[in-house]
Amino acid sequence: MAGSATPLWEVFIRSRNGLSHKHVGSLHAADATLALHAARDLYTRRGEGLSIWVVPSNAITASDPADKGMMFEPAASKIYRHPTFYEVPEEVGHM
Amino acid sequence: MESGSIQVTETPLVLFVLRRADDALILGHRLSEWCGVAPAMEEDMALANMGLDLIGQARSLYAYAGEAEAVGHDEDAFAYCRDERAYRNLLLVEQPNGDFAKTMARQFLYAAFAYPYWRAMMGSADAMLSAIAAKSEKEMAYHLRYCAEWIVRLGDGTTTSHARATAAIEELWPFTGELFEVDGVERAAIAEGIGVDLETLRGAWRSSVAEILEKAALKMPADGWMQKGGRNGRHSEHLGHLLAELQYVQRAIPGAIW
Fold first, then answer.
1. Which residues of A touch B41 (CB under 8 A)?
2. Which residues pair with A22 in a beta bridge?
3. By the CB < 8 Å criterion, does A42 face chain B?
4. pLDDT per residue over B133-145, tens digit each?
5. Are B216 and B154 in contact (CB under 8 A)?
């Protein structure tokens, strides 16, 4: 099994020009080059991608689920931040 | 499909195409043997992917051999209903998987040849072979890159991985001479502009192999006696065992489909 010799990597794939890279999963690999190969073999077998990023999982700083209250709940009461309060004049058409 | 073995009408073109088709099928089958038992899930998928690339190449080539032969043999007939002696693959590709180092070494030595080979074949006067070459060239370029990275890490890795990589390269080296063998079948294809002179690929193969072996801190073996015969149907004892598994269902239940 994959141990410390093969740390965890997060994989991001950009499927088309103009779109952004999207997280698709993770894998184990010894180094960045092998991680890129493994990402190609695991996540682009059905033509999903035009570009791959691999990032060491331990390079990601994540928010603590326990901080959910102070991190995200204050935004819930500020519905005026959503653009739904503006009426789009008909002449503007589809936005 | 009739039961038993087929007899192939071996015109120069049919033979020329079957050689490449058999290389791809046998090596693809070898890689498929890793499915579910590779050292890690990531490698399991990578080996299966490469196997599928090769089996895809084999299918296109067998279909074309069938067209060239024009007696109604399809891909399955070539794959499942020919005896060992009718197979024309290189001895290198039928060698058993061994450990991961040996599988990587075999794939590396083959890909370092097949990538420039298919690249050159893109200029073939035969439109079908040129099209198959264009697809195969990209696949083999990736196989070469993937295997080269592993050879470097195994060779320049731990004492154990270095010893295993050394043993693998040394064991397989005597089968690399056959890659560049030019006989009557090849000469006829070269004369018609269908094939490429394999001898002209030797330099590129040697330098790309030497470059990676050096990076891997592995010694390039001396060119001693080279084992040949696969191109003419004389195989090592391993091919019979491989075919017994590959062909079992069609031989036991001729014409079975699902």
1. 2, 28
2. A13
3. yes
4. 999 999 999 999 9
5. yes
Is A28 close to B153, i.e. CB distance below 8 A? no
Q: Give ipTM to 2 decimals.
A: 0.83
User: What are the structural domains, with CATH classification, of chain B?
Assistant: 12-252 (1.20.1260.10)
This prediction's pTM: 0.91
User: Residue B36: is it exposed, middle or buried by C-beta count within 10 angstroms (0-12/13-18/19+)?
Assistant: exposed
Sign of the alpha-carbon dihedral angle for B79, B83, B85, B90: positive
Helix B41-69 and helix B127-155, axial crossing angle in degrees, nearest 10: 150
Query: Which helix (H) or strand (E) is A50 found in, with range?
Result: none
**The residue to which tokens 């890795």 are assigned:** B157
> Which tokens go with B174?
């005597």
Q: When comparing pLDDT for B172 and A85, which is higher? A: B172
What phi and psi, each to the nearest 5 degrees, are found at residue A11?
A: -110, 130
Chain B nearest CA to A30, separation (Å): 9
A8 versus A81: the higher-pLDDT residue is A8
Tally of residues, chain B? 258
